Amino acid sequence: MRSICVCVFLFLALTASTYADELRLKNGDRYTGAVVTLVKGKLTFDTGHGTLEVPWADITSLTVTAPVILTVAGREQTVTFAAGPDGQVAIAGGATIALTDITALRRPEPPLVIDGAANAGVLSSGGNTDVNSLHFDGEVVARAFPNRYTASGWVNRSVDNGRETSRNWTGAFRYDRFISKRMYLSGGSIFTYDRFRDLNLRTALGVGLGYQVADNDRMKLGVEGGYGYVHENFASQPDDSFQAVQNSVALDVYVSDKRLDFFHRHAVFLGLTGDDNLFVQTRDGVRVRVAGSLVTTVEYDLDYDRSPAIGRKKTDHAFGWTLGYRF
């Protein structure tokens, strides 16, 4: 447990963001951060604590230290520039342009975009109540268009008065290949171990077609469906496997400049044969940005198996609170 906590805090310390652009307004306000876009006379500027939308006419000075695609008189060029006198900017290389001549700004499409989160929750008590529990989860999404790779997982372990009461983990991996701006081919796998469900390993594989319904600052929603295969290796009884129709959904709804993130994830595998071949995993919660990229999360997880090992319950669920980092 101590080693995991040390790794988490080292990770948090090493993944801080740097903001170096500078913006000055007519009213004297000054901001540092990063230019996002200039579209239809409105500049979007990320301060690291939130996003500003500023009328272009209100800006008196702007410095951009990382390459940006600038449009003047219908021509695009990738440049950096520093603030100049009298509402002008000095382009790297010597040219000078008036702010009023700039009609658009946007960042170049990066070759690789990575985002995700890591969270940990620990409870330890002694005396009349002797309970120790650990929860760790993380998710990483790497996007290099037209490819997207997603890896996620979580671990739970609890000990009550020296007796282990829970020990389980799940790992999930997905590859998406976009064939248009929104539609993609998908392939994924989910691996689950749970000592108290008699599960040595449940393997769920799926391939199909997905659609990115939304992907913006207010909402992300992806829906996939297709063919699935499930194999369950039990510790004390014969293995089980079945072919299935599979469906998965990933939803994030952002509120107040992404200070709040309401999220939902689910994976459903419905057997093509047999009435009892069905398993469902869901994750629901709210993530609150505390300061910068530091977040706290309240989450409810559910795992339902219609045909569990003999003597085991069909439904397992967990409710928890964690502290983590969003990058």
Q: How would you characterize the overall build of this protein?
A:
This protein has 327 residues and is mainly β. The protein has two domains: 2-106, no CATH class; 113-326, Beta Barrel (Porin). Helices cover 4% and strands 70% of the residues. The chain has a twelve-stranded antiparallel beta barrel with strand order 10-11-12-13-14-15-16-17-18-19-20-21. Strands 1, 2, 3, 4, 5, 6, 7, 8 and 9 form a nine-stranded antiparallel sheet that branches. Strand 10 and strand 11 (131-144) form a beta hairpin. The chain is elongated, with a radius of gyration of 25 Å. Residues 1-18 have low confidence and may be disordered.
Main attributes of the structure:
327 residues, Porin, 12-stranded antiparallel beta barrel, 21 strands, disordered N terminus
